[in-house]
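Input record (Table S2, row 370):
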Amino acid sequence: MQGFIVCVLVLYFISPCLCIRFNVRTTSDTTYNVMQYGATGDGKSDDTKAFSSAWSNACKAEGKTTLVIPSGKSFLVKKVDFIGPCNAEILIQFEGKIVAPSKDAWEARPYLIEIDSVNGLTIDGNNVGEIDGNGATWWDCSDCKRPGVFHFHKCDKLNVSNLAISNSPRSHVSVNECNGATISKISIDAPDSSPNTDGIDVSDSINILIQDSNIKSGDDCIAINGGTSFLDAKRITCGPGHGISVGSLGKDGASDQVSNIYVQNCTFKETTNGARIKTFPGGSGYAKNITYEQIILENVKNPIIIDQEYNNYLQETSVSVSSVTFRGFSGTYTGKVAINLDCKNDASVICKNAHGKATDTIPNVPCLSN
Ligand SMILES: *[C@@H]1O[C@H](CO)[C@@H](O)[C@H](O)[C@H]1NC(C)=O
Ligand SMILES: *[C@@H]1O[C@H](CO)[C@@H](O)[C@H](O)[C@H]1NC(C)=O
Ligand SMILES: *[C@@H]1O[C@H](CO)[C@@H](O)[C@H](O)[C@H]1NC(C)=O
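Output record (2-acetamido-2-deoxy-beta-D-glucopyranose complex):
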């Protein structure tokens, strides 16, 4: 008799628990898992279609939705287009691995993953999410138009964190025309010898924070390009790589503007450059109010470099560089020059009532009238 009563009590206490669990499952219809849309996750079959249907459903739903790329699985995708605008505010729970196809199987396009016009997007890799760009199949092809891996265009209030990205054919992450992006706890890894494999490229964007990340690459760890202002980079470890660079600005006569850049508490390990500002002669615009502060150098070749003769051909105009601060640098360097400020002075040629012709002069004399 006693035994029977215990049995009934146990059932009574267990059953409400089952009910609660069941309810949680059925109400989680705001989650869109790529596996439910036919992804195989075997790293071999093309899962492109599953990604795009999961995305379009997550994007057109209302409220907050989560796109799940589950952990423990590997997804071969030929292209991923996550295009907005979306009704929903989306979290991508990026816990699996995306693998790029080898060079022969890439679609002819500039990036593997393109995220366009999606505002308020959060991507959280939860320290297990990973993208492998399969770049080794591209690097030795010098006349190929090598693609980048992860591209954000017109994504305001973007938040990308806890993700590892490796071996891109070209840039790993690029941010263009975004207002307000936080990129944190990202690890980027490509070999020293891999060509043009920038870590993070930013252009035409404002209010960008890049922090607590580790970047190893064959080119710039971070490249701050034209049209960027209010960018903070904090606690970045860079190396190998070419440093954290402003520019190149003014390429092919372009007018580029970069301002209000603050790089602090960064460590450069065995990089070719540390803090670099590079402008092409022949361009116009400006790079101003740029601060590099609390920088640790470990065997850096050129710790501080302003290079206004980048690619060194003679031109009359240049991007103006002003209000630049380098503060609190310490550590070791291996090159010949620790601080190299190669600035161009536009006023070095003055023509006042001057007529005639100048050929093959250094600097060029564009102001003579005939
Ligand atoms: C970005 O997302 C991460 C992970 O979801 C979160 O911890 C962090 O607070 C978010 N940052 C911002 C600025 O919203
Ligand atoms: C310089 O940039 C910082 C942000 O890095 C900003 O807070 C400051 O106001 C700017 N200074 C000027 C004079 O524009
Ligand atoms: C930068 O480092 C200094 C000295 O270690 C520390 O006091 C400061 O809080 C750090 N700032 C940031 C933004 O990490």
